[in-house]
Q: What sequence folds into this?
């Protein structure tokens, strides 16, 4: 991989080279004609021509997977964290209306296992390919004494592009606008420190436990569910210029993230009308956690929000539903500054 | 910081917000008119207009600081690792002829200390400002159970730009060309696992020890010396189109990195004519490490290599010296495939 530099670890060069060998084909399948470099060069090269975009603006974001990685190391299942990371990053720049261009990853561990590193990168490459994003660089660092055996920290950086006049920044949001939620696929990549504490430490479950609430799935299955990518679902709304604000519901939940895009003088009433998925209520019940606190840590089933004009709500619903977005009404913009929930707390 | 999202940690939000507050002014001082976002948005926005570059190519690289971070946590001195990271990344894309545009960072720890995180980011911001690079995003992740108290992992991603016809990739290197070395400022960010093992575990030194070989400096001073940035030194050679190949000497040393840019059929003879700095010979002596092995782990005093035509060698020397590059002759390109050292091993 361009820039992937096992030598910096100074440790097990042979294992590093074995990992690169295994990653090569999956990484190269993410390339397109704009990628001018191959694995092993110092930097990844990506041609900066943006046909059809008169005033291109690059949108960049760095993120990690958090302690969801502990669930991966507990179970030895590293196949999904790569997609978690890529999808999280794609969603983060989608908030400003950007299409992904390229991605770079960082994997750190105490002792490198070529199979594990390759599995993680293959997961990233697969998710990149799905959204037309090239995986042009990465670094795998072996840092003895920094990480417990089996622990891998994984972070990534995405760069995308948006036409300057099409940037979505929420500044045009006004009271009366409607908030449409899109189903999440689970916890995504947030709240895992609390979830693990409740499920494993407090309730004494194991990754293989099958609590009735999960309908036959194991705890590990539920916790490792891949962070959903909202790019395809939201693109039609962007193309019609109907998104007044977009919000990726990461750590901090709906209240913590929605406030990041609301202009001064605007608040929101959230109607938690959608069915909160059972994994959330299981954590809530087993941990004795108040709904109010749950909402500030977890996405509660709403992984992405789209703020639209009241009179385009029906059209946006159709666009989102037809693109497989699984939309539901999630509330309204109001005058004021806070984020409130309608109805009584359960 | 754009995209800096303490909420993803789900842990100490107040401490995270305190850290952001402290970072703000230093981060904003890296901004320029091409930066369209401010701290706190989901992605960092950077206008993709490249005046004077007809066919712009983005060059991106991700890297970490490795176990140099252990020296920072041993001593509580976190002020320099940020510059280490930025300069490492700047040098990596300089290899292909790129000027830096923007940078994003990732900081992970077990328990966030706002002062430490802010100190690390201030170091990055300062190094970014020096080379005209905007710090447009970052993520600070608090991951309980992943990191020992005081340990911080730090990684970063840089994106720069180069005109397509000016990309330096070493493909035009031919036998007879000359290799010019540029002084390193110390170990840079490579070989710290071995250096710590030798100095601390084997020789029983402490960070405060002042071995005579270091001329009064402490071991910590020597180990924390900031990774040098070669951008200003090399730019004049790039502007005159005289660089046939460029090489950042990271982990793997001169042999491991030079081979990354040599075309098939080319090898090199390295004349280690420059004075190897005392920190390297101290590690060599205390560890009883063969020079051959030292050269494959450490930069040995040559942090960056410039391959030039024989008849432009004198001109390049002048350009590099006048720009403060501290150049020395480092060898020649030969026919063949290997990297050899001239003269006897010391």
A:
């Amino acid at each position: 991989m361009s820039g992937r530099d096992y030598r910096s670890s100074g440790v097990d060069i042979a294992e590093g080279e074995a990992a690169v060998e295994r990653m090569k084909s999956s990484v190269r399948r993410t390339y397109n004609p704009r990628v001018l470099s191959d694995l092993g060069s110092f930097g990844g090269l990506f041609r900066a021509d943006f046909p059809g975009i008169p005033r291109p603006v690059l949108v960049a974001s760095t993120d990690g997977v958090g302690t969801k990685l502990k669930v991966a190391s507990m179970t030895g299942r590293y196949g999904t964290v790569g997609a978690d990371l890529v999808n999280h990053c794609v969603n983060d720049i989608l908030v400003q209306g950007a299409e992904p261009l390229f991605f770079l990853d960082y994997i750190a561990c105490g002792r490198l296992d070529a199979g594990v590193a390759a599995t993680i990168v293959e997961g990233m490459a697969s998710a990149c390919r799905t959204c037309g994003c090239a995986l042009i660089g990465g670094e795998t660092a072996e840092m003895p004494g920094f990480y417990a055996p089996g622990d891998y920290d994984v972070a990534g950086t995405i760069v995308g592009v948006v036409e300057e006049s099409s940037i979505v920044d929420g500044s045009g949001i006004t009271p009366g606008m409607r908030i449409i939620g899109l189903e999440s696929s689970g916890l995504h990549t947030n709240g895992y420190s609390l979830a693990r504490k409740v499920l494993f430490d407090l309730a004494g479950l194991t990754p293989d436990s099958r609590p009735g609430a999960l309908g036959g799935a194991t705890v590990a299955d539920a916790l490792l569910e891949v962070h959903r990518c909202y790019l395809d679902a939201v693109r039609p709304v962007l193309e019609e210029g109907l998104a007044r604000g977009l919000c990726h519901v990461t750590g901090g939940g709906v209240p913590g993230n929605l406030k990041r895009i609301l202009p001064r003088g605007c608040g929101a009433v959230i109607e938690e009308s959608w069915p909160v998925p059972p994994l959330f209520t299981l954590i809530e019940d087993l941990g004795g956690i108040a709904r109010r606190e749950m909402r500030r840590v977890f996405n509660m089933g709403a992984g992405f929000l789209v703020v639209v004009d009241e009179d385009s709500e029906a059209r946006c619903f159709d666009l989102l539903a037809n693109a497989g977005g699984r939309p539901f009404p999630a509330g309204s913009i109001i005058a004021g500054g806070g984020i409130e929930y309608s109805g009584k707390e359960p």
User: Anything to note?
Assistant: Chain A touches chain B through 81 residues (CB under 8 Å). Residues 7-166 of chain A form a domain with the 60s Ribosomal Protein L30; Chain: A; fold (CATH 3.30.1330.10).
